[in-house]
Specification:
The structure holds 2 protein chains of 2 kinds.
Chain A: E1 23-29, H1 36-44, E2 48-52, E3 59-66, E4 72-77, H2 89-99, E5 110-116, H3 120-131, E6 137-142, H4 144-149, E7 153-154, H5 156-163, E8 167-169, H6 179-186, H7 211-222, E9 226-227, H8 233-242, H9 247-288, H10 293-310, H11 313-329, H12 331-345, H13 350-358, H14 363-369, H15 376-385, H16 394-405, E10 410-412, E11 416-417, H17 418-442, E12 454-457, H18 465-497, H19 514-526, H20 533-541, H21 548-560, H22 568-575, H23 578-590, H24 595-605, H25 609-637
Parallel strand pairs in A: 1-4, 1-5, 5-6, 6-8
Antiparallel strand pairs in A: 2-3, 3-4, 7-9, 10-11
Helix pairs in contact in A: 3-7, 9-10, 9-11, 9-17, 10-18, 10-21, 11-18, 12-13, 13-14, 14-24, 15-17, 16-17, 16-22, 16-23, 17-23, 18-21, 19-20, 20-21, 23-25, 24-25
Chain B: H1 7-10, E1 23-29, H2 33-41, E2 49-55, E3 62-66, E4 69-73, H3 75-78, E5 81-83
Antiparallel strand pairs in B: 1-2, 1-5, 2-3, 3-4
Classes of the chains: A alpha/beta, B alpha+beta.
The structure holds guanosine-5'-diphosphate (GDP) and magnesium ion.
């Protein structure tokens, strides 16, 4: 145990939790973009999970690793902070966890404080409040590679004496200089001897309330021990291009087009491959197992239902790959800058842009991310419009309907085809609905002065394969977990309802089944949109989650069809008119078909008022617009 | 700068008066306490030097360099951040 090393080592296991506690908890703390997540990924690899704090819904990653002496260490990646000022909700989480005030999370036994070595004098401002907590702390000055390349220097021994805690220079991305981090986790890293340093810093830390003196302190600490690197020439040059009055917006548009075209064409071979595999597996099961209801449940319910959704995994991963590259490279912050003027026109601020962008992945984390918006009214407005952004669960529905009804033709030679253009159109549709709703809200019930837009632009960096890989792994797990729980349950439930009630021990025609009669009950309501009772069943099951409609239709058509060779696309073409197809797309663009979103909005706004308003508004809008779309397309084609 | 020279006699210079590449010393943030606090944490501390880098397409928001980092803010905010009188 590390206690044996005595006072000269930074002991992690001593303290209130005692040496007997099962494992230590260590918190990763630092400003945004210091490299916390990169280090976290390097230390924990795949042994991590995403969790929510109990009560509040700020996501955090937790992971376990074994230190070299065999002890187990729990690592938590906290939200990035500029100060320990518990004013913004994000910072309050970090504040509460570090003070042990967060229910369900043990007070950390030690802290890994990550600062960007290329930006030391400003990042050191965070060190004052963190060090004053008095927990064993290792200061990791990250981005050693970048500091070196740009000609900066750093004296870790001197800094360590000034701060009174061990300081190491490392590169989380390159994996350099991390040896002392492992020693710290083992509790075998030497703490600098208390020296006659001119900075009696631990007893004399400035209060965060007084920012100027905090900054003066940070400057004093770094002075002489740190030589600032040359400003990054590349960031300058890239900004000159990406923020250029003409080239900037053009590149922005080009990036969007390329991403969508790649999602469509690039994912096709992979999706065909997965579809083929699932089809072969279904046939194998059908021919291998003896004939029984169980076999039918397996092939028509589970394989057709869940398989129909799993096919979209490659496409969703490709989307997340692009989001990952844009975010890790630093381009996303520039995109927020380009978008700010438009956002301002609709009464929103650029800070709403980042949650709205992440709503392209999923509205749930996006709604959690609105916590960084200090203004309460701005925050609610952003929460209310976030589900209009095209989340990845809509992708399967869109892809299916577009592939069935829109022939692929080039528009801009190979760069853009009709299908990708239709998809971009749907994304734009959601975005426009979000903006107009924001405008209406901000000029009425949610009018406010607003807090100004402030954004620190991170330097451009090459995204690392490791971090992209971990993101995709994370996403794949989330997706497969949904497929294995919500979608599986819906598929089985639906299959059973489609086989009841038994007459003379035989299941009815699907039209007359329980599921069928529910579908036919809602049919009069949705017939004006061009939907029949089968789509009706899909609309009901997709209340659980949007992509469930794809699985539901897979199951219904699976039960219906005599030979299993008829694909979902072909079946859909028989079942929907072009007007109904467009109406279905519009309906899914607007409707709030997602129980997780309703739940998170209730939690974040603290009551049922806003989620009920939001759900009614979105469903009403979806209905009216789908109705109009059906009429217009039908009149136009007829 | 010849363009802004005269008008500066009339009012105190703000961040808006800086030309691209120009550097100046921050004097005072005439903004609500909460916003001023956040700006100071990002580096806009009276007495420190700041330079105007460029604007986003369309002229707003604007990017300023303080303490080795690029920070973007809207012109509306920049107009409340005063500079010490330049030569
Ligand atoms: N050059 C370099 N880049 C790094 C290093 N560590 C992290 N990065 C990059 O810095 C960016 C921000 O890192 P991230 O871990 O997301 O920061 P966080 O916001 O603190 O979690 C990413 O693009 C990383 O790839 C490093 O040691 N060297
Ligand atoms: Mg992070």
């Amino acid at each position: 145990m590390s206690d044996c090393h005595g006072a000269s080592t930074s002991s992690l296991v001593s303290g209130p939790n005692g040496a007997s506690s099962a494992h230590k908890t260590i918190a990763l703390v630092g400003p945004p973009n210091a490299g916390k997540t990169t280090l976290f990924n390097r230390l924990t690899g795949l042994r991590q999970k995403v969790a929510n704090y109990p009560g509040v819904t700020v996501e955090h990653h937790a992971g376990r690793l074994h230190s070299r002496n065999g002890a187990e260490v729990d690592l938590i990646d906290l939200p990035g902070i500029y100060s320990l000022d518990p004013r913004s909700e994000d910072e309050r989480v970090t504040h509460d966890v570090l003070r042990g005030d967060m229910a369900g999370i043990p007070r950390p036994d030690a802290i890994l404080l990550i600062l960007d070595a290329t930006n030391l004098s400003r990042h050191l401002v965070v060190a004052a409040p963190v060090l004053s907590l008095g927990l064993p702390t290792l200061v990791i000055l990250n981005m050693a590679d970048d500091l070196r390349d740009r000609g900066g220097t750093l004296d870790t021994t001197e800094l360590s004496q000034r701060l009174g805690v061990p300081v190491v220079l490392a590169s989380a991305a390159k994996g350099e200089g991390l040896e002392p981090v492992f020693e710290f986790l083992d509790g075998t890293l030497a703490v600098p001897p208390p020296s006659g340093s001119p900075f009696p810093i631990l007893n004399n830390l400035p209060s965060m309330k007084d920012v100027p003196s905090c900054r003066a302190w940070a400057t004093r600490v770094s002075q002489g021990a740190w030589k600032a690197p040359m400003p990054s020439v590349w960031s300058r040059r890239l900004d000159a291009v990406f923020l250029h009055p003409l080239a900037g917006p053009l590149i922005f548009a080009l990036v969007v087009v390329i991403v969508f075209q790649a999602i469509f064409t690039g994912a096709t071979p992979l999706m065909d491959g997965v579809e083929g595999l699932i089809g072969d597996f279904g046939k194998w099961v059908a021919t291998t197992l003896p004939e029984s209801s169980w076999r039918d449940l397996l092939t028509e319910g589970v394989i057709a239902g869940v398989g129909g959704v799993v096919v979209f995994l490659p496409q969703i991963l490709l989307l997340f790959l692009f989001i990952g590259i844009l975010e890790d490279s630093g381009y996303l912050a520039r995109a927020a800058l380009i978008a700010d003027r438009t956002m301002a026109r609709f009464g929103l601020q650029g800070k709403s842009f980042i949650p709205l962008l992440s709503a392209y992945a999923c509205a749930v984390p996006a709604i959690m991310a609105t916590r960084t918006i200090e203004n309460k009214r701005d925050r609610i407005a952003t929460i209310l419009i976030a589900p209009f952004m095209t989340c990845s669960a809509r992708l399967p529905v869109y892809t299916l309907v577009i592939a069935a009804f829109i022939p692929e033709r080039p528009i801009l030679s190979h760069l853009l085809g009709t299908r990708a253009a239709a998809m971009i159109g749907l994304y734009v549709l959601g975005f426009v609905a979000a903006l107009l709703t924001a405008r209406a809200l901000k000029s009425s019930v949610l009018r406010s002065d607003g807090t100004p837009f402030l954004l620190e632009l991170p330097s451009y960096r090459w995204p690392t394969l490791r971090s992209l890989g971990l993101r995709l792994y994370d996403r794949a797990m989330v997706f497969l977990k949904r497929a294995g729980t919500i979608i599986l349950a819906c598929a089985i439930g639906l299959w059973i309802m489609a086989h009841l009630p038994l007459t003379n021990g035989k299941p009815p025609e699907i039209r007359d089944s329980l599921a069928g009669s529910i579908g036919r009950t809602v049919e009069p309501v949705i017939a004006p949109l061009g939907f029949n009772w089968k789509i009706g069943i899909g609309l009901i099951t997709s209340l659980a989650a949007r992509e469930v409609i794809v699985g539901t239709l897979g199951t219904i058509y699976g039960i219906e069809s005599e030979d299993d060779t008829q694909g979902l696309t072909a079946a859909l073409q028989k079942d929907l008119t072009p007007g109904g197809a467009v109406a279905l797309l519009v309906f899914f663009a607007f409707a709030m078909q997602c129980m997780s979103t309703v739940a998170v909005v209730k939690r974040e706004t603290g009551g049922w008022k806003w989620p009920v308003v939001q759900f009614s508004y979105m469903t009403g809008l979806a209905y009216v617009c789908a109705f109009a779309a059906n009429r217009i397309v039908t009149a136009w084609l007829g | 700068m010849q363009i802004s020279g005269n008008s500066q006699l009339a009012h105190r210079a703000t961040l808006l008066d800086l030309a691209p590449g120009e550097e100046a010393t921050l004097a005072e943030l005439s903004l609500p306490e909460e916003i001023a606090h956040r700006l100071m944490i990002l580096g806009f501390v009276p007495g420190s030097s700041v330079s105007y880098t460029r604007s986003a397409p369309g002229g707003d928001p604007r990017v300023y360099r303080v303490d080795g980092a690029d920070v973007a803010l809207r012109g509306e905010t920049a107009s409340h951040i005063h500079l010490e009188r330049r030569m």
